[in-house]
C-alpha cells in the first residue's frame, strides 16, 4: 500500500473516531435535562443580545471578528454547527473539518475561527463528561503523559498562529487556508475515488463505513506498536492490565511525542485534541480499543481546554457567542443525521461527503490568491482575486445548503417510518 493511501486511511480512521466521540457526547447532552437547562440558560442572554442587533458583545471584538456582530452572524454559526452535525451524524466522519473553513467563509478571521472551534469542542466535552461511565478503561498514566506533550504542542501551535497574525492578518488567513486546503484536497480526492469505485460494484458498507457509532473488538497489536513498545526509554508506562496477562508497557516519552503532534494540530487547525489520537493509540502505540476510548476522551477535555483558554481566549481570539451557536446547531444536526442513515443509502451519503470536502477545499484554496496579492507576493487584480474567491465561496455554501436540505427532506419525508422503527 502506498504512503498517500496509508495516510488517507489513517486520517479517515481519525475522522471516524472523532465523529463517534462527537455523537456520544452530543447524545449525552440531549438526553440529560439538567445539561439542556444549563445550555438554555447560557443561550438566553446570547439570543436576547443577538436579536437586538447589538454590536461588540463579549467575544465580538471588531479587531478580530466580523465588522459588526449581528443576528445574522449568530444564525450563521447555528447553521454551521447544524451542517457539521448533519455530516457527523449521517456520515460518521468529517463534520469537524468544515467548521473553521465555514467560519472563515462567514467573515471571521482565521485565528479567531480556530480559537472558537477548539473552544466549542472544549465546551461540548465538558458538558458530555458523564459519557465516561460506558467508555471502558481509562489509563490515567497514559493520559497524563499524552497531555504533557499536547500542552507543549498546543503552546507551540498557538504561539505560531499568534505570531503569524501579528506579522499580518492576511498572512494568518493565508496560512490557515493553505493548511486546510491541503488536507481537504487530500481527503476529498481519496473520498471521491472510493465513492466512484463503490458505484462500480463494490459492496456498500453503509453510511458509517467501518467506523460507525458502534463498538467492535480490539484490533490486534500492529508492527509499529510492537517496535515502539520495545523501546525502553524511561519512564515506562504500564497499561492494558485488564486485557493482556501482565499488561503492556510503552515509554512515556513516546506517548508525550504523540501528544505534541496532536496539540500542534489542535492549536493550528482548531480540530480538537481527539482528531488523530484514536488511530494513533491503536495503530501506532498498540494500545487496546477499550483503553483508548476512555483515555482519548479524557485527554480531549484537557487538550482542547488548555489550547482554547491559554492560547486563544486570553488573547481575545474566541468568539463565545458563535461557539454557543455552533454547539446548539450541532446537537440538532447530529441527532437528525444519525436518524436519517436509516432511510438513506450509504453510497449516496459517501458521494455527498466527498463533494462537501472538495467544496471546502475550493473555498479555502480560492481565498489564497487574494491574500497573497494583499501581501504583495503575487501580482493579481483585485477584481480577478475577488472573482476567484466568490467562486469558492458560493460553491461551498451551495453544497452545504443542498446537502442539508436533502437530508432534512429525507428525514421529514420518512418521519412516520422513523417513529415506528424508534
Describe this structure in a few short sentences.
The chain is an all-alpha fold and 422 residues long. Helices cover 70% and strands 2% of the residues. It contains 16 helices and 2 strands.
Task: List its traits.
422 residues, mainly alpha, two-stranded antiparallel ribbon, 16 helices, globular
What is the succession of H and E elements? HHHHHHHHEEHHHHHHHH
Strand content: under 5%
Largest sheet descriptor: 2 strands, antiparallel
Low-confidence stretches: 54-68, 130-135, 202-218
Account of the 3D structure:
Helices cover 70% and strands 2% of the residues. The protein has 422 residues and is mainly α. The radius of gyration is 21 Å and the shape is globular. The model is unreliable at 54-68, 130-135 and 202-218 (pLDDT under 50). The chain has one domain. The protein is built from 16 helices and 2 strands.
List the helices and strands and how they pair.
Blueprint (H helix, E strand, L loop, with lengths): L2 H28 L2 H19 L19 H21 L7 H7 L4 H18 L12 H28 L1 H31 L23 H7 L6 E4 L8 E4 H18 L7 H8 L4 H23 L8 H21 L5 H20 L2 H8 L6 H32 L1 H7 L1
Antiparallel strand pairs: 1-2
Helix pairs in contact: 1-10, 1-12, 2-12, 3-12, 4-5, 5-9, 5-11, 5-12, 6-7, 6-9, 6-11, 7-13, 7-14, 10-11, 12-15, 13-15, 14-15
Amino acid at each position: 500500500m502506498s504512503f498517500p493511501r496509508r495516510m488517507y486511511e489513517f486520517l479517515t480512521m481519525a475522522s471516524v473516531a472523532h465523529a463517534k466521540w462527537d455523537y456520544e457526547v452530543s447524545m449525552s447532552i440531549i438526553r440529560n435535562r439538567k445539561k439542556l437547562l444549563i445550555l438554555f440558560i447560557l443561550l438566553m442572554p446570547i439570543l436576547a443580545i443577538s436579536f437586538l442587533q447589538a454590536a461588540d458583545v463579549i467575544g465580538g471584538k471588531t479587531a478580530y471578528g466580523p465588522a459588526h456582530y449581528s443576528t445574522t452572524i449568530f444564525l450563521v454559526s447555528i447553521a454551521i454547527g447544524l451542517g457539521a452535525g448533519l455530516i457527523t451524524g449521517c456520515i460518521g466522519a468529517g463534520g469537524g473539518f468544515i467548521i473553521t473553513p465555514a467560519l472563515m467563509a462567514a467573515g471571521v478571521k482565521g485565528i479567531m475561527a480556530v480559537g472558537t472551534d477548539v473552544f466549542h469542542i472544549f465546551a461540548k466535552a465538558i458538558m458530555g463528561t458523564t459519557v465516561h461511565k460506558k467508555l471502558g478503561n481509562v489509563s490515567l498514566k497514559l493520559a497524563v503523559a499524552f497531555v504533557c506533550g499536547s500542552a507543549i504542542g498546543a503552546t507551540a501551535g498557538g504561539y505560531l498562529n499568534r505570531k503569524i497574525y501579528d506579522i499580518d492578518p492576511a498572512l494568518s488567513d493565508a496560512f490557515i487556508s493553505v493548511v486546510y486546503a491541503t488536507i481537504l484536497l487530500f481527503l476529498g480526492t481519496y473520498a471521491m475515488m472510493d465513492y466512484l469505485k463503490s458505484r462500480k460494484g463494490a459492496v456498500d458498507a453503509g453510511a458509517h463505513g467501518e467506523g460507525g457509532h458502534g463498538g467492535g473488538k480490539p484490533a490486534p497489536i500492529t508492527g509499529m506498536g510492537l517496535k515502539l513498545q520495545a523501546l525502553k526509554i524511561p519512564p515506562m508506562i504500564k497499561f492494558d492490565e485488564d486485557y493482556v496477562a501482565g499488561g503492556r508497557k510503552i515509554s512515556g516519552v513516546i506517548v508525550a511525542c504523540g501528544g505534541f503532534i496532536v496539540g500542534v494540530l489542535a492549536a493550528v487547525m482548531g480540530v480538537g485534541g481527539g482528531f488523530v489520537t484514536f488511530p494513533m493509540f491503536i495503530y501506532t502505540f498498540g494500545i487496546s480499543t477499550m483503553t483508548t476510548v476512555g483515555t482519548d476522551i479524557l485527554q480531549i477535555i484537557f487538550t482542547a481546554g488548555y489550547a482554547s483558554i491559554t492560547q486563544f481566549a486570553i488573547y481575545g481570539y474566541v468568539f463565545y457567542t458563535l461557539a454557543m451557536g455552533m454547539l446548539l446547531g450541532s446537537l440538532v444536526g447530529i441527532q437528525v443525521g444519525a436518524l436519517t442513515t436509516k432511510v438513506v443509502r450509504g453510497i449516496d451519503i459517501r458521494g455527498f461527503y466527498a463533494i462537501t470536502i472538495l467544496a471546502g477545499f475550493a473555498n479555502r484554496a480560492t481565498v489564497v490568491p487574494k491574500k497573497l496579492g494583499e501581501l504583495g507576493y503575487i501580482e493579481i487584480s483585485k477584481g480577478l482575486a475577488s472573482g476567484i474567491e466568490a467562486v469558492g465561496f458560493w460553491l461551498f455554501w451551495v453544497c452545504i445548503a443542498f446537502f442539508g436540505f436533502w437530508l432534512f427532506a429525507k428525514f421529514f419525508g420518512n418521519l412516520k417510518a422513523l417513529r415506528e422503527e424508534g
